[in-house]
Automatic annotation (TrEMBL), chain A:
The lineage of its organism: Eukaryota, Metazoa, Chordata, Craniata, Vertebrata. GO terms for cellular component: transcription factor TFIID complex. Residues 1-23, 1068-1118, 1135-1200 are annotated as: Disordered. It comes from Rhinolophus ferrumequinum. This is Transcription initiation factor TFIID subunit 2. Component of the TFIID basal transcription factor complex, composed of TATA-box-binding protein TBP, and a number of TBP-associated factors (TAFs), including TAF1, TAF2, TAF3, TAF4, TAF5, TAF6, TAF7, TAF8, TAF9, TAF10, TAF11, TAF12 and TAF13. Interacts with TAF2C1. Component of the TFTC-HAT complex.
From TrEMBL, chain B:
Residues 29-106 form the Bromodomain associated domain. Component of the TFIID basal transcription factor complex, composed of TATA-box-binding protein TBP, and a number of TBP-associated factors (TAFs), including TAF1, TAF2, TAF3, TAF4, TAF5, TAF6, TAF7, TAF8, TAF9, TAF10, TAF11, TAF12 and TAF13. Interacts with TBP, TAF1, TAF6, TAF10, TAF11 and TAF13. Component also of a small TAF complex (SMAT) containing TAF8, TAF10 and SUPT7L. Forms a heterodimer with TAF10. Interaction with TAF10 is mediated mainly via its histone fold domain while interaction with SUPT7L is via its C-terminal region. This is Transcription initiation factor TFIID subunit 8. The lineage of its organism: Eukaryota, Metazoa, Chordata, Craniata, Vertebrata. It comes from Rhinolophus ferrumequinum (Greater horseshoe bat). Gene3D superfamilies: Histone, subunit A (1.10.20.10). PANTHER family: TRANSCRIPTION INITIATION FACTOR TFIID SUBUNIT 8. CDD domains: HFD_TAF8, TAF8. Residues 1-30, 235-312 are annotated as: Disordered. Residues 297-312 have a biased composition (Basic residues). Transmembrane segments: none annotated.
Length: 1200, 312
């Protein structure tokens, strides 16, 4: 957990106090993006970009940009045609159809592929050669204008088209398109420097249908008709330097609403939703006011736009001066439950406008600062808007989440430092993915990362006070806004980037406090603290002997040393003690203030100064202790398991005013099913002043307790009389009052109580008939006619309650489920579900909450054996065209069915949907649900686990999901859950065994594999573009000599190695005979700047030098080097050796010879082979969606 | 005069049914009248000195006569109705004849001509009787303000009502019970009907009718049904709104109103603009308080781009 050698690693940190050092040999100052044609029918985009770039080194001869998916037609630099090469190793991570299938191998290769094109490290998929005519110009560091024409056809990621298939024009159909993606994904829709650290000003132009609106970043300068008056062009200017990753776009027939409170804020929604938009956004100005006030800083952009779109990638996405929301966040005034959620989304996006969009980050390892600050100020807004109770409850929830996640997976590291790049130093070796790049992270990890980041910010606040905290933020913002106004001093713009060290420095400047230990504990190190506490009261000494143990050996834990607050509530009052947790001391003696002899008349003072009467008869007569709390302020990221007597928990629940304490005691009371616990919980339930969420969880606890004490339970079922008293008519207690949800607290309680009651079980472990009748009556007498609010959530919860009441059917073995043997209670339930589900078709509820609940209930009935288990119904509801909530609920049921019934067919159906569904969110969600509820796990025997499935999933993560980072990482997660890190157990072992020895392998190789492998290769196309490019470059530049850019991190990964060698090919200099400068001088020059450029240490392994000499000396083709050398020289495991050797040879039988035959002879064969291949690939270029084709490289003018 | 209209009506139908052999009394009546007209034509021909005539020519003349008489009747009716009467008077006929270019003065002389033949009145055939409806009760006489020529009141049983009085149910429990079961019955009946008439899904393979589920049908735009309140809710909202949210609407509507106005106006602008680009500018000044770039008019393309065809 604790990376050893942390301190030296920090020393190595390159981005030190000196400020930002660009990884690029140039500075981008301005970029024009012009999209002049958007075709909704064909889902295509045509346009160009123009980047204004200042070289910062003299010998800049190639420029790397980020671009994915785009088909690039033509590149010109200062109006001169420029050759370019396009290589995206992430398209297919592992090139060979190796039989390896080992996730460890894949994750390394994937991380290497991502790094090879990582814009944060100055890399990119698109490499442009500066025309030789401009070399002199470059040497004078004069401006370059790079003009790139590109198009995008049916993008699978980055831009999402929503085109409903109805009659009418695109505008009438509500067709729209918007940019989306996870982290820096702008390169998916136009070529750029897709890094959060490269800021520039922007001019954005979008020509769209006259009935459409294009919303983008910055100020809308003007809108101009085209000559035929059928289209209009939106011209945007963004003068605040912004990273390409924060550029966004939304085009559609939007309805426009100018915010009535802030005229510079404009809201957009899809047709017909304007009334909802008005209501939803009517609150936004208050969020604005709040942030501006606490940050004492005006909103940095001159305008703000919110766009609500369908099929959103994420609910909230913040970009420079605009945020894109899911249209499903819109709601009318009648909806209760969605309102706070939507407001939270709005507030979240606005917080990210300040920290995330306006202030960007230097590198990925600084991401936690931005996420932390935006999450923290969002928390402050929560506190102000929803109150301290809600805030503390939320913090507790987040803390529990992160603790659970870290303990499960082994830790979340906020500030990863990668010193030296040796894999063994990988700080996240416990994970099945690399945390070096945002794009290799599991989505769940990333959400937890954000959660931890804001919790740590709160810890910093605890340490330095909120006032200082806000001053630091203000300082960051004012530095940035000064820098942003420096229009022509682009070197100043790096002030708008935040780094960990800069942030910490500003904290120490402002507060004068040293928070280094805190940072070291929570930021530079992963893991949480696990405390076990118990105590004894020593009557003689009047001392509380507290024992606090820690578990710091389990995965995800760390040792805590430092202060720990303990609050002791005694008869005489509440006292805080700060204990010093040290290495070896477990016991702490805390002197008590009160005498155990108690004065019965006296009121007991609480922590908040309140004095209350308590019935003290329950407590131990000898002890003055009422309850004890460890770390009540949650100032450590921890899990506390504390032992105290049941009456103490009961006192804590009744009298402690902190909602977190109440929540904790409710959780603890589950273990004490006694009448006293029951009474305490019932009292809390009835107490109107008590926080509603506490009351809600008391309901569930009460149900559990009632079930534990079922044999001794007296009186009506738990909560029934309470519910009757609160919500039913006085004269007829079986009839619920007509709905009136004006009081939200009682609304939530009214919703929850029946759900909890349905969990009650009698001695036969059945839901009591009385409870079921009660719930059915609630449904029957539900009357919402006089209510101001919609009751859709309430009704949905009633169905959930029905589902909760279902118990497993008593069945004779494998009896077929038919109507005749249906349990009469179930018949009643089914009757209700049928009616509800059918009524939804006629009078749909908001967000179809009722359908969602019905589907879940039906699955429960199936699972419990009352209704035949059948996925057909769910599959029909999961189809595209249903509302997304319904689809997810239905898919969840199918996933569950797949697991329970071990159905291969359904698993295939799901996998098919993962690959083909039009909605990215749904695809992501299916993977997510399959991972959470897997059909089998790695140590399990299952008929589903077979070779074909391994192949399928491998293909999915290897090449099938290259257009969506999140999806790929989801596929990796699923693969990990199903098969683990090593080779899946279901794969036949013998073949693998043979692979170990190449000679043997050749001899025994199953002949059926060979054709399969060839076929497979041709099908999946080993990065078609790379071959195509070879043809383009092989002849003119038959050799290369630049090895200086080999990233040491990835050297032993063949994939990265190859990609680097591919990069070499584009070098313009001709060996020996170079017209411009001698090759040797050039290669000598470059290493001088290379360490700064790509972060590799200057030392190179000897073999690569040797390689270079060989390469230039013998005029060896670079391609061959890439094939031969890893095999010959890299210290690889035998497994990966096998794979590397076959990396670039398409035919398995071919590479076995490789090692035996003489190299020279072999070279020719290879050359031949590749020519042959490239011809094939050329033909295939259209079938693959690879954007760059060989033709366009060789003769850019051809494509015009 | 009284039967002019009848003649006219009979004439037209007579021509249609002439060739047919009908036994129905109305047809008989028409045939008889036709025969009479033929007799008239024949006697006029005899008067004029013809000895014999072809059947076709007699028919033609009959037809002409009939048309002439019909036209007189129709026209006279129009005149009489024009003066807000229902019964034509002599003067109506006179005016009609004048209108038709007939010299009325010659009529008395013609009627008194010496050689005229007198035709016997056609035999009165039995009028078609409308079957009498059962009369129940006394028909109400017209009140004084209704003219007598208006149709009579229908039988009393068609309009009278007899209110019955029952004790209204006021017991809360019964009321709720009733409302609940009524709603449930309606819902069940409705959904069952929908399920019966459309496609269904079933939870049980062996039984599709006990718990019929209306089949799930994907929408083209699923978010609309999911987000917009249903009509029922809208209705409710209006009711509650009007009573409780008065003060809210006052404050909220004012600025919101402007913005909706403008977004609507913007659409208009697009059409207005094409004729007169300077118009929206003046409009902006006077009423558009909010200056938002999305509300500004769309500009016309710059003219310096001479060749739009090549540009696009």
């Amino acid at each position: 957990m604790t990376p050893t050698g942390l301190e030296p690693a920090r020393m190595n940190r390159k981005k030190g106090d000196k400020g930002f050092e660009s990884p690029r040999p140039y500075k981008l100052t301005h970029q024009v993006v012009c999209i002049n044609n958007i075709n909704f029918q064909r889902k295509s985009v045509v346009g160009f970009v123009e980047l204004t770039v200042f070289p910062t080194v003299a010998n800049l001869n190639r420029i790397k940009l980020s671009s994915k998916q785009c088909r690039i037609y033509r590149v010109r630099i200062n109006d001169l045609e420029a050759a370019f090469i396009y290589n995206d190793p992430t398209l297919e991570v592992c090139h060979n159809e190796s039989k390896q299938r080992n996730l460890n191998y894949f994750s390394n290769a994937y991380a290497a592929a991502v790094s090879a094109v990582d814009p944060d490290a100055g890399n990119g998929e698109l490499c442009i050669k500066v025309p030789s005519e401009l070399w002199k110009h470059v040497d004078e560091l004069k401006v370059l204008k790079i003009h790139i024409n590109f198009s995008l056809d049916q993008p699978k990621g980055g831009l999402h088209f929503v085109v409903p298939s109805v009659e009418g024009s695109m505008a009438e159909r509500g067709a729209h398109v918007f940019s989306c993606g996870y982290q820096n994904s702008t390169r998916f829709w136009f070529p750029c420097v897709d890094s959060y650290s490269e800021l520039c000003t922007w001019k954005l132009e979008f020509t769209v249908d006259a009935a459409m609106v294009a919303v983008s970043n910055g100020d809308l300068v003007e809108t101009v008709y085209t000559h035929d008056m059928r289209k209009k062009t939106f011209h945007y200017m963004l003068t605040i330097p912004t990273a390409a990753s924060n550029i966004s776009l939304a085009i559609g027939p939007f309805e426009i609403l100018v915010d009535p409170y802030m005229h510079e804020v404009t809201h957009f929604c899809l047709p017909q939703l304007l009334p909802l938009l008005k209501h939803t956004t009517s609150y936004l100005h208050e969020v604005f006011e709040f942030y501006e006030e606490i940050l004492t800083c005006r909103y940095p952009y001159s305008c703000f736009k919110t766009v609500f779109i369908d099929e959103a990638y994420v609910e909230v996405a913040a970009y420079a001066s605009m945020s894109i929301f899911s249209t499903n966040l819109l709601h009318s005034a009648m909806i209760i439950d969605e309102t706070p959620l939507t407001r939270r989304c709005l507030a979240q996006s606005l917080a990210q406008q300040f920290f995330g969009c306006f202030i960007s980050r230097m590198s990925w390892s600084d991401e936690w600062v931005l996420k932390g600050i935006s999450g923290y100020i969002y928390g402050l807004w929560m506190k102000k808007t929803f109150g301290v109770n809600e805030y503390r409850h939320w913090i507790k929830e987040e803390l529990d989440k992160i603790v659970a996640y870290e303990l499960k997976t082994g830790g979340v590291l906020l500030h990863p430092i990668f010193g030296g790049g040796k894999e063994k130093d990988n700080p996240a070796s416990h994970l099945h993915f690399s945390i070096k790049h945002p794009h290799t992270l599991s989505w769940e990890y990333y959400t937890m990362f954000q959660c931890k980041a804001h919790l740590v910010m709160r810890l910093i606040e605890n340490r330095i006070s909120m006032e200082f905290m806000l001053q630091v933020f203000n300082k960051l913002l004012s530095l940035a806004s000064t820098a942003s106004s420096q229009k022509f001093q682009s070197h100043m713009w790096s002030q708008m980037l935040v780094s960990t060290s800069g942030f910490l420095k500003s904290i120490s400047n402002v507060s004068g406090k040293d928070i280094q230990p805190l940072i070291k504990q929570w930021v530079d190190q992963s893991g949480v603290v696990k405390f076990y506490g118990s105590f004894a009261f020593n009557r003689k000494r009047n001392v509380l002997e507290l024992e606090i143990k820690q578990d710091y050996t389990s995965p995800g834990t760390q040792k805590y040393v430092g202060p720990l607050k303990v609050t002791v509530q005694e008869l005489d009052g509440s006292f805080n003690h700060t204990l010093q947790i040290e290495e070896n001391s477990l016991k702490h003696d805390i002197p008590c203030h009160s005498k155990s002899r108690r004065n019965k008349k006296k009121k007991i003072p609480l922590m908040n100064g309140e004095e209350v009467d308590m019935d003290l008869s329950a407590m131990d007569a000898d002890s003055p202790l009422l309850w004890i709390r460890i770390d009540p302020d949650m100032s450590v990221l921890r899990k506390v398991e504390f032992e105290q007597a049941d009456f103490m928990w009961q006192y804590q629940l009744r009298y402690e005013r902190d909602v977190v304490a109440q929540q904790e005691s409710i959780l603890a009371l589950e273990k004490f099913p006694t009448p006293a616990s029951r009474l305490a919980l019932t009292d809390i339930l009835e107490q109107e002043q008590c926080f509603y969420r506490v009351r809600m969880s008391a309901c569930f606890c009460l149900a559990k307790i009632a079930n534990s004490m079922v044999s001794t339970w007296t009186g009506p079922p738990a909560m029934k009389s309470l519910f009757t008293r609160m919500f039913c008519c006085k004269t007829c207690p079986n009839i619920v009052k007509t709905n009136n949800f004006m009081s939200f607290q009682s609304y939530f309680l009214q919703k929850t109580m029946p759900v909890a009651m349905a969990l009650l079980r009698d001695v036969h472990n059945l839901c009591p008939k009385e409870v079921l009748t009660f719930i059915l009556d609630l449904i029957k007498y539900n009357d919402n006619r006089k209510n101001k609010f919609s009751d859709n959530y309430y009704r949905a919860e009633m169905i959930d309650a029905l589902a909760n009441s279902v118990t497993p059917a008593v069945s004779v073995n494998n009896e077929v489920r038919t109507l005749d043997n249906l349990n009469p209670d179930v018949r009643l339930i089914l009757e209700e579900i049928t009616r509800f589900l059918n009524m939804e078709k006629l009078l749909p509820s908001y967000r179809h909450t009722i359908t969602v609940s019905c589907l879940r209930a039906i699955r429960v009935l199936q699972k419990n054996g009352h209704v035949p288990s059948d996925p057909a119904l769910f599959k029909s509801y999961a189809e595209y065209g249903h509302f997304v909530d319904i689809r997810i609920a239905a898919l969840e049921a199918v996933v569950d069915y797949t697991k329970v019934d071990r159905s291969y067919e359904e698993l295939q159906w799901l996998l098919n949907m993962i690959q083909n569904d039009p909605v990215p969110y749904v695809r992501h969600k299916i993977l997510n649900m399959l991972t959470k509820n897997p059909p089998f796990t790695k140590n399990m025997e299952s008929p589903l686990c077979n070779e074909a499935l391994v192949d399928q999933l491998w293909k999915l993560m290897n090449s099938g999901t290259s257009h969506d980072w999140r999806l790929r990482c989801g596929a990796v997660d699923l693969y990990f859950t199903l098969f683990g890190l090593s080779r899946p157990s279901c794969l036949p072992l013998p073949e693998l065994g043979l692979v170990l020895n190449l000679k043997e392998k050749k001899a025994v190789l199953n002949p059926t594999i060979i054709p399969e492998a060839i076929a497979g290769n041709q099908e999946t196309a080993i990065n078609p573009s790379s071959h195509a490019q070879l043809v383009g470059f092989q002849n003119p530049f038959s050799s290369s000599q630049d090895e200086e850019e080999i990233d040491m991190d990835t050297v032993h990964d063949s994939q990265a190695f190859i990609s680097h060698h591919l990069n070499m090919l584009e070098r313009p200099s001709t060996p020996g005979l170079s017209k411009y400068r001698p090759a040797s001088s050039r290669s000598a020059l470059i290493p001088q700047h290379s360490p700064g450029c790509d972060g590799t240490p200057a030392t190179k392994p000897p073999w690569s030098m040797e390689l270079a000499r060989k390469g230039t000396g013998k005029e060896q083709s670079p391609l061959e080097m890439s094939i031969l050398h890893p095999v010959a020289t890299t210290p690889l495991s035998v497994f990966s050796k096998e794979s590397t050797s076959s990396k670039h040879s398409d035919h398995h039988h071919h590479h076995h010879h490789e090692h035996k035959k003489k190299k020279k002879k072999h070279k020719h064969k290879h050359k031949h082979k590749h020519k042959h291949d490239s011809k094939e690939k050329d033909k295939e270029a259209f079938t693959f969606s690879s954007p760059a084709s060989g033709r366009s490289i060789r003769s850019p003018s051809l494509s015009d | 005069m009284a039967d002019t209209t009848a003649t006219a009506g009979a004439g037209s139908s007579g021509t249609r049914s002439g060739g047919k052999q009908s036994t129905n009394p109305a047809d008989n009546y028409h045939l008889a009248r036709r025969r009479t007209l033929q007799v008239v034509v024949s006697s006029l021909l005899t008067e004029a000195g013809f000895e014999s005539a072809e059947k076709a020519s007699v028919e033609t003349l009959t037809e002409m006569l009939q048309s002439y008489i019909s036209e007189i009747g129709r026209s006279a009716k129009s005149y009489c109705e024009h003066t807000a009467r229902t019964q034509p008077t002599l003067s109506d006929i006179v005016v009609t004849l004048v209108e038709m270019g007939f010299n009325v003065d010659t009529l008395p002389a013609y009627a008194k001509r010496s050689q005229r033949m007198v035709i016997t009145a056609p035999p009165v055939t039995n009028q078609p009787v409308t079957p009498k409806a059962l009369i129940a009760g006394q028909n109400r006489p017209h009140p004084p303000h209704i003219p007598s020529h208006f149709p009579e009141f229908p039988d009393p049983h068609t309009y009278i009502k007899t209110p019955t009085y029952r004790e209204p149910v006021s017991d809360y429990q019964v009321l709720r019970e009733k409302a609940a079961s009524q709603r449930r019955d309606v819902e069940r009946a409705l959904t069952r009907f929908m399920a019966k008439t459309g496609e269904t899904q079933s939870l049980f393979k062996d039984d599709v009718s006990t718990f019929p589920l209306i089949a799930a049908r994907p929408f083209t735009i699923p978010y609309l049904t999911a987000l917009l309140p249903s009509e029922l809710e809208m209705q409710q909202m209006e009711e509650t709104d009007s009573s409780e949210q008065d003060e809210q609407t006052d404050t909220e509507n004012l600025p919101l109103h402007i913005s909706t106005d403008d977004s609507g106006a913007e659409k208009e602008n697009t059409s207005v603009l094409q004729q007169n680009p300077s118009l929206p500018g003046s409009r902006n000044g006077e009423e558009n308080i909010i200056d938002n770039p999305y509300l500004r008019p769309v500009k016309k393309p710059k003219i310096r781009r001479k060749k739009p065809d090549t540009f696009w």
